[in-house]
Design brief:
This protein is an alpha+beta fold. Among the domains are: 61-305, YVTN repeat-like/Quinoprotein amine dehydrogenase (Methylamine Dehydrogenase, Chain H, 7 Propeller); 482-500 and 517-642, Methylamine Dehydrogenase, Chain H, CATH 2.130.10. Helix content is 14%, strand content 29%. The strands form 15 sheets. A five-stranded antiparallel β-sheet has the order 19-22-23-24-30, with no helix packed on it. Strands 41, 42, 43, 44 and 45 form a five-stranded antiparallel β-sheet that branches. Strands 1-2-3-6 form a four-stranded antiparallel β-sheet, with no helix packed on it. A hairpin with a 5-residue loop joins strand 7 (64-69) and strand 8 (75-80). Helix 5 runs antiparallel to helix 6, helix 7 runs antiparallel to helix 8 (824-836) and helix 8 (824-836) runs antiparallel to helix 9 (842-858). The chain is globular, with a radius of gyration of 30 Å. Residues 322-348, 354-452, 457-479, 507-517 and 707-717 have low confidence and may be disordered.
Amino acid sequence: MHTGPVLCVRWAHSGRWLASGSDDQIVMIWDLDPSAKGKVWGSDEVNVEGWKPMKRLPGHESDVTDLAWSPGDRYIASVGLDSQVLVWCGYTLERLRKLDQHNGFVKGVCWDPVGEFLATQSDDRSVKIWRTTDWGLEAEVTKPFEDSPGSTFFRRLSWSPDGAHITASNATNNKGFVFIAAVISRNTWTSEISLVGHENTIEVASYNPHIFLRDPDGEVKTSNICSVVALGADDRSVSVWQTKSARPIIVAKEAFDRQIMDLSWSWDGLTLYAVSSDGTLGVFNFEREELEGIAPFSAQKQYLHKFGFVAPPLPEGYSHTAPSSAVQAQQQVQVHSEFGAQANEGGERINKLVAKRKDKKRVGPMSMRNVPSASTASVPSASISEAVFRPPPSASRSFEDAPHAFSAPGIRLPPPPMHGVSRPSSPSMSTIQASSSFADYSFDVDMERGLDVRIEALDESGKGKRKASAADLGEESRPSRPRTLGGDRPRETVVVKEIGRQSPLPDRSWMGVGLKIVLGVPPLLTYLSTKVEGPGSGEDAVFEAKNSENGDRFEVSFVSRKQVQWLDYLPSPVLALAATSMFCACVSEDGSVNVYSPQGRRLMPTLALGSPPTSLHASKGALMAITASAMVYVWDVKKRGTYFPPVSIQSLMDAGLATILSASVRPNGTPVIQMSNGVAYSYDPSLSCWVKLSERWWAAGSDAWQSRQRANSQVAARGIVAAIEGELASPNPGEDGYIEPGQARPGWWNVALTLGHLETKMHTAKAVDSPQEYKQALLVYAKKIADEGFRGKAEELIRELFGPVYWRPGKDDSWAPSVLGFSKRDLLREVLNVFARSKMLPKLAIDWQDTLKKASADE
């Protein structure tokens, strides 16, 4: 049995075995237990089938995130957060190979249906292709993922059943502003095709297991073959695409309350299952006519023979014999009868989608017969409302655009509705958008839980437009734009240039004891802008400021959907801006700070800093200003307060020898100041002192130093601590920490610096509120202690995490039971697992594991 949450479940192709992966670091193989049926003990829930654990496959050192069975179940591959890919025999279940060339969490794996390759996708922003003949690296694809976010739970990718393409999730276009699924071509291993339209990161791609024939009566050959792929994303939507069309067959918008985590097709290819982190399962049923051209598996087997790949022989004495058809039929009848009874006796509630039938005109899913694809010679002119994001023409290409793609004309393919959805009778018409983004066509659907799930498809004539819900529309016309402050005036294009100040700035220097420090003031420009960061802010939301050259007008405005939503006029020129989804802020030359809500209301009184600003920074609800007088202010905008009193950075300037390279603020209000002397600082209010987050000194000997991995990757992918270290250059000759080549180092040099560095990383992770990096540093620290056999340090760490033996919630406040949202005793379990695998501390680990079990039982 698993001892942690299960992250993935995969059926063997034979149907005999089931594989599951969990964050307990174990892959479990399950077998059907005919005798384990009946009610679940202690409840009225019915177990239609019973599956017993057959074998545990240990080997991963962290969460197992994805699994995949190879064609014919010859192999099973598992990937995890330990950055490793493990390949097991699908028959003997022995481990055959470990692939460890990824430099980040591996979150997706799939097999080539031919059996020649294995593909994996990782947080290191790459898809790696491995040969199954020698398990060597065939290719690495990175371009579509250079700007991809790293905050997704999974990066599940899928290989088309004809072997021609890999569709990889979590890719982006346009420098990360357009979320796409990248389609990678076989052999060339390039991605020139993008599936565009989801409004947030795509988590999972899943191909229908069947190949489809463009002409059902034609031959099984490359020009007559296409595939169907489903995508699930963090925008809570599911889309289904066919490779012969530039637009999706169907889009189910906001079908769940939270993001989609996984997708799976039934073996007959007519049912799609989607699961979400909201704990629900969605089922999309298609009629055979709706997925026209579906071919039997014999056609796929015949087609794949052309690749000429010969799989290695199977182990002798092993097989994946599936149950006989008679047994299967009997089990199927029993499953249906028992499941139906359970559904009617108050078990799991099943929400069915029912279409609204109204007299008003609605756009329903119709035939795509006359819809032009990207390869059609004549395409109508584009027409789309400004409220709909439209990617640039170069952002994507359809399957039809690729030189190796199919060139046959599209055939009739009616888009499938959700199960139980009937079609409206009166579709509305208008022109369509000439791009590869999602088709903007919808009708309303009611669910018993009271949610609206919009199903989008194309109408019969290739014309249509996005329709709002019935509550939003009049009888025949769209509503006019709402009135906004400044929205009735056209936007002016302002040439960005520096304005000469009418009078020099007064002496704003801050006087210390024997020191005089003046920080630079930004130049006065005619135009400033910053993108509004954060969810819900819109793709094109911008906060901007305009300073007139003659000094008679200084204004700020919030622009979204090419329209001014609000504006304000200020008495002093604006020097810096900052914006999040929660607020917008500006600071003027006279030191005044104004903070606005997303609708332009002033959230706080105008703050007077008394000195011109050097910079302004924001993150979620935190706002930080650094002034020319070397003072740092950090406010909690949501609570209308400050995280700590204003503090001077004069002490960090090293008597004028060090300068500020960069500054930022964390969502918890922690400032991060990068200095030119190779040190990153933050202020700790509880200690009333500046503290060092990291410094390049550690590069002189720490085995955990990461600056050699510096790259222009996003902070979200690497973590804030790794990003801080990535910006610290290794010491140069003459600087602290520099070691001359060949210079002798003291004994225990590397061990001491590595342990000190890891301890500092843990304190830093707590300061900047980075739970995963804290846990990672803790486990690496524990492994280093175990490898060196430092029993005293190990016992001290154990006691710190275990706490008082007789601690009970509410009775003893001297010890906190959690850190950064993690239970300390849960972390201790993982630390003890590290100690137990070591050569020098297994006895200590076993003793404390027993103590921890007893304490858990008492709780």
